[in-house]
Amino acid sequence: MTVAPGTQIPPASFNYIPHSKDSESIQACGIPISLNAHEEWKGKRVVVISVPGAFTPTCHANHLPPFVAKASEIHDKGADVIAFLSSNDPFVLSAWAKSAGVKDNSIIFISDGNAEWSKQLGLDVDLTSKGMGMRSSRYALIIDDLKLSYVAQEEPGKLQVSSADAILANL
After folding, report:
1. In the predicted model, is pLDDT for residue 142 greater than 70?
2. Which positions are catalytic residues (predicted)?
3. Alpha-carbon span 83 to 64, nearest angstrom
4. Hey, what CATH class is 13-170 in?
5. What tens digit of pLDDT does each residue of 109-131 get?
6. What is the chain's Cα-based Rg?
7. Which of 61, 83, 90, 88 lies closest to 141, judged by CA?
8. What is the DSSP secondary structure assignment for residue 143, as one 8-state letter?
9. Which residues of 103-114 are buried (b: 16+ CB within 10 A; e: fewer)?
10. H or E segment at 153?
């Protein structure tokens, strides 16, 4: 069962590597830190964009670039946080952010290892047949003070309801 607007998000602790001047090089690994969603996102408007995998064709070429280009516009429309979520580890997500030219924390890249949080939301996908295991599906959330105000899961092969333009239209 997929969560619906009005539902409070389940507790979560995500690992991520925040941008820093010391780790701007693609060769620099950085140090993962933990983000407690209920503590960090309380009282905030948060956009979560979930993708099946960093560096995968649709995610890398079509999904992420418009968010990088429109991050300021999304923040100006009221988003306190933009978070890209994937089942990849935080080191891969940090490299993905760097490769996409994200040079600040306007977008954070959070790891949902084993798609545990996505599974609680009913938004995980089994990609075992493609050698990728359990993953988060492609979806978008807008969270207002820990409650979902927008929940949209993409149909396989589509990129519409979780696009930057869809988020801008729903903020």
Report:
1. yes
2. 59
3. 11
4. alpha beta
5. 999 989 999 999 999 987 777 77
6. 15
7. 83
8. E
9. eeebbbbbbbee
10. strand 147-153
Instruction: Say what the alpha-carbon torsion angle 66, 156, 110, 2 is, to the nearest 10 degrees.
Output: 120
Q: pLDDT by residue (tens digit) across 1-47?
A: 689 999 999 999 999 999 887 777 777 888 999 999 999 999 999 99
Q: Do the Cβ atoms of 67 and 74 come closer than 8 Å? A: yes
Report the alpha-carbon distance of residue 93 to residue 12 in Å, rounded: 18
Contact yes or no for 28/51 (Cβ under 8 A): no
Question: What does the block give as tokens for 65?
Answer: 């670039």
pTM: 0.94
Asked whether the CA dihedral 119, 42, 72, 88 is positive or negative, the reply is: negative
Cβ atoms 100, 110 nearer than 8 A:
no
Query: Any idea which residues carry the catalytic annotation?
Result: 59
Domain locations in the chain?
Answer: 13-170
